[in-house]
Amino acid sequence: MKALITAGGRGTRLRPITYTTNKHLIPLGNKPMIWYAIEKVVAAGISDIGININPEETEIQKTVGDGSRWGAQITYIKQTGGPQGLAHIIKVAEKFLDGDSFLFYLGDNIVLADLKSLIRRFERGKLDCLLALSHVQDPERFGVPVFENGKLVRVDEKPENPASNFAVTGIYVYSPAVMKAVHAIKPSARGELEISDAHTYLLQHGSRVGYQEITGWWKDTGKPFDILEGNSLILDQLTGQDIQGEISPETVIEGTVRIGKGARITGASVLRGPLVVGEQSILHNAYIAPYTSIGNNVSITNAEVDHSIILDGVSINTNKHIVDSIIGNNAQVTDVTLTRPSGHKLIVGSNSSVEI
After folding, report:
1. Tell me: the pLDDT tens digits for 193-206?
2. What is the C-alpha separation between 180 and 20, in angstroms, rounded?
3. What CATH topology corresponds to 242-338?
4. Contact, 43 vs 114, CB < 8 A?
5. What is the pTM of this model?
6. Which of 16, 27, 70, 82 is the most exposed place for a label (fewest CB within 10 A)?
7. CA end-to-end span of the chain, whole Å?
């Protein structure tokens, strides 16, 4: 069995971060999001992996490499023809898949469950398609399975009036039969080849389609708060302390904390985990609250940072409380009292969100 992981798209709902960073490289717990997808796939026993990327993409290749880090072999598949839906991604990858069964994993999803049980269910049932389902509060954002008399009969894509509180998660297992479906369906009203339509085609043409509710949490990280929640879920899995940096005597460390090599925590700083601090970062008189990830080469002075993701190279020098925030690479946050004339000086890009 092979695996196909998506890492394309534009991440428009995560702008301005995604103007300069592919959303699949946004760090959760200081590790690129797509690494979690690769780890789950490899843990399920799959080592032949294709990754779908935008035609101009270069950073994914640099960050992921050839797969040897995970004992895998990775093939990069450029998304020709632009974004045309998930079913189109499978069509573009047809040569790579080469008639094999495969696990289809949306690279901006994170999941706690072990995927081996899904593959076993698929193989034992001799299925053509296995859908991983999860209870959600907002099913209208997803593909929603429709049941009649306890039997799955179709999947509706982002319905206004969902037939159930189940969502089809971004994890699927297919036999080669799915190729006929993705070639047969037509673009939806929004101009995309919907994967939900491919599932409905399989159901209506005699293919063996099964489903399984996944255990534990599942998160689709499509919006900023989803990213923050995903970061919290990842940090919750940490255990113990791993402190490789320098800690001053007056600093207080509580809970599950990871501090990278070369980092220095000085002054009356307080760090309450779960949280991570990257390599070569300097924190002075800072309070870092739970569920915060701080990248590499970050400088934080006097500030309180809570439930946030701070990317590499950020400089924060303020006595303010920063909460529920994502701060992009090399950004600067400065206290208004440190500059003249007084007032709030802003250089804010398109699609930014600022509170003063």
Report:
1. 888 899 989 988 98
2. 37
3. UDP N-Acetylglucosamine Acyltransferase; domain 1 (2.160.10)
4. yes
5. 0.84
6. 82
7. 52
